[in-house]
């Protein structure tokens, strides 16, 4: 991958305990950034300890992104620790069980929306407040190829990811004049524990799913982190409000 130099800058990654979030947090740290790794579980804490032992300036924050007080505190801790916030990857998300629209419970609907859409909005709300005072910043939200198309049985998830793209575009035009860029990545099927659990629970084999992808394989978390770092870098300085599919060709067919 391209090697960036983010020394003297600070990044926040949510859902940093595993998968794409963990890989992106590591990539920011290896590029020299100070990194706040946030997650609702202990995975981020363990990873932060390893990165700190390797000489990186990293902290772990326990945060439920659906809780406004916790999100506010997460941003405050990041800024108080590092003195600034230059980059954010709003990645935390959950999947729903496969159920048709009329069969989905209101409790599961609320759970999916509260993390996938409300959580992104809350993170944006407090990140943008600080970045506006700072006069600069770049935010990348995590949507999905599900933000462009649909799949039967995933109405809650699909609607949340469509919402992330709409929110990204709106925030982008609001904050571009203030020196802040907001974009989104839209991963296809990436080899993470969440995707593997989803496939197993729905009775799909990995081989069956791979046959649907023109490139003939699942994506790697590093292929998402590469895009996130690029969108945050000066190489993408003219990118505003873009929703970037990284999907092995799923949206082409």
UniProtKB/TrEMBL annotation:
Coiled-coil segments: none
Keywords tagged on the record: Oxidoreductase
Gene3D superfamilies linked to this entry: NAD(P)-binding Rossmann-like Domain (3.40.50.720)
Pfam (any one): adh_short_C2
Gene Ontology MF annotations: oxidoreductase activity
SUPFAM superfamilies recorded: NAD(P)-binding Rossmann-fold domains (SSF51735)
Transmembrane spans: none
Family, per entry: Belongs to the short-chain dehydrogenases/reductases (SDR) family.
Name of the protein this chain belongs to: NAD(P)-dependent dehydrogenase, short-chain alcohol dehydrogenase family
């Amino acid at each position: 991958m391209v090697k960036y130099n983010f020394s003297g800058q600070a990044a926040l990654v949510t859902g940093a305990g595993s998968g794409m979030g963990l890989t992106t947090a590591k990539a920011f740290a290896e590029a020299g950034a100070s990194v706040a790794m946030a997650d609702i579980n202990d995975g981020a804490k363990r990873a932060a300890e390893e990165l700190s032992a390797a000489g990186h300036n990293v902290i772990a924050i326990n945060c439920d992104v659906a809780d406004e007080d916790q999100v506010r505190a997460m941003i405050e801790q990041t800024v108080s620790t590092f003195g600034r916030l230059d980059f954010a990857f709003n990645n935390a998300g959950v999947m729903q069980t496969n159920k048709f629209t009329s069969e989905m419970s209101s409790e599961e609907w609320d759970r999916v929306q509260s993390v996938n859409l409300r959580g992104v909005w809350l993170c944006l709300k407090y990140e943008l407040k600080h970045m506006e005072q700072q006069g600069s910043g770049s935010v990348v939200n995590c949507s999905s190829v599900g933000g462009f198309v649909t799949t039967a049985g995933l109405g809650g998830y699909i609607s949340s990811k469509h919402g992330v793209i709409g929110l990204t575009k709106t925030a982008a035009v609001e904050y571009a004049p203030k020196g802040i860029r907001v974009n989104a990545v839209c991963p296809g099927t990436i080899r993470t524990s969440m995707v593997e659990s989803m496939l197993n629970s729905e009775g799909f084999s990995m081989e069956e799913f791979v046959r649907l992808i023109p490139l003939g394989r699942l994506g790697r978390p590093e292929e998402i982190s590469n895009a996130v770092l690029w969108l945050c870098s000066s190489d993408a300085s003219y990118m505003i409000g873009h929703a970037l599919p990284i999907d092995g060709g799923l949206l082409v067919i």
